[in-house]
Write a structure and sequence with these properties.
Layout: E1 2-6, H1 10-20, H2 35-41, E2 49-52, H3 58-65, E3 70-74, H4 77-86, E4 91-94, E5 107-112, H5 123-133, E6 134-145, H6 149-164, E7 172-177, H7 180-189, E8 193-200, H8 222-228, H9 234-246, H10 248-251, E9 254-260
Parallel strand pairs: 2-3, 2-5, 3-4, 5-6
Antiparallel strand pairs: 1-7, 6-9, 8-9
Bound molecules: S-adenosylmethionine.
């Protein structure tokens, strides 16, 4: 386990991030993270879904508009308010994964993309809450920042850019990083049966350089990237595919786990 520190703490980071961008449109691309993995988990419209840490709502809105019974929670008020304003029919509320208000066994599915690595304390309790609100046989799909070369490089680049622009990085908690084995063990300890852990390049390291981005992504537009995925040019994709083919555990930036409650 490795901890990433930045100049603003995690809650300040998410408040600023969701304050800066509008609510997401429903995600469109089913071949990329996170919708690809949500679809592998929610294989039928046969029970209630909780999206914990729904953020700007791309997954929440996708399932809501597709006719599923989905509830979203996030601990950042501004994200919840933006979602309510864009679609008042959404079931979305402020909530914290370490202490959910829902009764035991309320949900058949729980989706949590990029959520648990935001917890400096209470990670085991959060996964315990996940198990509690799921029904027996219920499935969870969760992603976690990987502890590997890719995220060490990203942290180094971020620190270097900050230093160049005169900022100090400070020691505010930003994110946890886990190896594949540590991530699986976290869920096994809470009683889950882990079905798969996949190395995924949510945002490829090469996307950080405009040269390797797809033509329509040269000028960064976060909303476009969140709906379409972080698209690379032909050359960028070729290089990224090679890295992921030969060293997936070192060049993914997250792991995606699918597990069920026995
Ligand atoms: C990486 S974002 C992912 C957003 C969304 N799931 C997606 O994939 O587009 C992680 C989200 O977790 C939320 N979050 C962080 N800690 C949380 C907590 N303790 N309880 C609930 N939400 C939290 C953040 O506010 C943020 O919206």
């Amino acid at each position: 386990m490795r901890v990433t520190y930045r100049h603003a703490n995690n809650k300040e980071y998410w408040t600023r991030r969701w304050g800066d961008i509008p609510a997401d449109v429903p995600m469109q691309n089913k071949t990329v993270y996170p919708l690809k993995y949500a679809e592998q988990t929610v294989t039928a419209n046969d029970g209630a879904i909780l999206e914990a840490g729904c953020g700007a709502g791309r997954i929440l809105r996708y399932y809501h508009e597709s006719g599923y019974d989905i509830t979203g929670i996030d601990f950042i008020d501004v994200a919840v308010e933006k979602l309510r304003a864009v679609d008042p029919t959404l079931k979305v509320e402020t909530g914290d994964i370490t202490q959910l208000r829902f009764a035991d066994a309320s949900f058949r599915y729980l989706l949590a993309f990029g959520l648990y690595h935001n917890l400096e304390h209470g990670l085991a309790e959060a996964v315990g809450e996940t198990a509690r609100v799921l029904q027996s046989g219920g499935r969870v799909c969760a992603s976690f920042r990987a502890d590997n070369i890719q995220t060490r490089l990203t942290d180094w680049l971020t620190e270097r850019r900050a230093r160049k622009s005169g900022k100090t990085m400070g020691k505010a908690f930003h994110k946890m990083n886990l190896t594949r084995r540590e991530f699986a063990a976290l869920f096994e300890r809470a009683g889950f049966v882990v079905e798969s852990v996949s190395p995924v390049e949510n945002m490829p390291i090469l996307y950080k350089f405009a040269f390797f981005r797809a033509r329509t992504h040269k000028v960064f537009d976060e909303n476009r990237a969140r709906a379409e995925g972080y698209r690379l040019s032909g050359l960028g994709q070729l290089l990224q595919d090679a890295l992921m083919r030969f060293l997936p555990d070192q060049f993914c930036n997250i792991y995606v786990l699918i597990a069920h409650k026995p």
